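ugh ok fine here u go
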Amino acid sequence: VRNIAQTNRTIICTIHQPSSELFEMFDNLLLLKQGGKTVYFGPLGENSCHLREYVKNVPGAPEMEMKVNPANYILEVFGSSTSVLSADSVDIYERSSLFESNKSEMKELVQPQASAVSFPRKFETSSWMQLKLLTSKAIVNYWRSPSYNATRISMTIIIACIFGSVYTRDEVHSQSSVIARFSVMLVATTFCCLLFGITVLVPLASERAVFTRERQAGMYGIIPYSLSY
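structure:
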């Protein structure tokens, strides 16, 4: 847990009567009384020096010795059934300077920022870089699907043979013959585009979950993703 905290991540742990070594690993302490009322909220410091300083100003609290486990001392002083304080520990905290300091800090944190956060562009990389990386990703996906690629290649060859055999024995002798051949090429191209557009739905269906997750994370745009396939 301490290693994770050293990566600038906030960790909240609930502990019950820990040892002195474990207690000293925490940076801040939120001590709650029965009913969820705050008794102490602040830093611990080395050897719980900040906690010791706070306890010194609590009327009726015994001195916290260095060899005493801070967790056991807290239960003895602030516990609901074992408390040795003459006054309510919650009232003592709310009248302390630590409470006022925490209250001021909370007011500063909840204040809206003077200017809205803005970024120079929506995505971290350019559209060209997105297209380049997504195309590489699509090539790898196609390479991992040999059956899909074989189907598309065989369909292309079969369609080419069918449309190419229409005018095999017909010679080009007029302008209408040239127009007819161009019409066949147009129909063949359109048919292939429609057919491959339908067959590409199969791999895209399996990629839908990945696309949705990466799109929500703002990794790339829709246009580079569409062009890459």
